Amino acid sequence: VQLVESGGGLVQAGDSLRLSCAASGLTFSSYVVGWFRQAPRKEREFIAAIRRSSSNIYYADYADSVKGRLTISRNDAKNTVYLQMNSLKHEDTAVYYCAAGQGTYMYRNDVNWNYWGQGTQVTVSS
Q: What secondary structure does DSSP assign to 70-83, as a single string?
């Protein structure tokens, strides 16, 4: 199983970025996929997660700190999950990780996930 994040970079405050998480080696559509981030000297924190129900309805969950600025989406045909980030702030600077988990629960902790990517750096200059 492999999760590969991409799309990070150096941007200015107010800019937008779209991160991608490409998965291989798993039945992607049946997994919950989440995004976390870790800033220097801080713990890894939950940002958003998305799952697809058996009725093909997509459900998403967001941390309060990013609600309204970030949008998570997925394209199961491409085994890819996206994180659209708008109105970026300096405090969004962090390494962003995607994670995949079996089941249907969208955990906000970083313990109950089966697979992790290596992360992509996002730096927002103020």
A: EEEEEEGGGTEEEE
Q: Which of 23, 32, 1 is nearest to 102 (CA)?
A: 32
Q: How far is CA 112 from CA 6, 64, 77, 119, in A?
A: 23, 20, 25, 18
pLDDT tens string 70-119? 999 999 999 999 999 999 999 999 999 999 999 899 999 999 999 999 99
Structure tokens, 49: 């997660």
Closest CA to 123 of 8, 2, 4, 10: 10
Give the list of residues 6+ apart from residue 43 with CB closer than 8 angstroms, or none. none
Euclidean distance between CA atoms 114 and 116, whole angstroms:
7
Which amino acid type is present at position 53? S
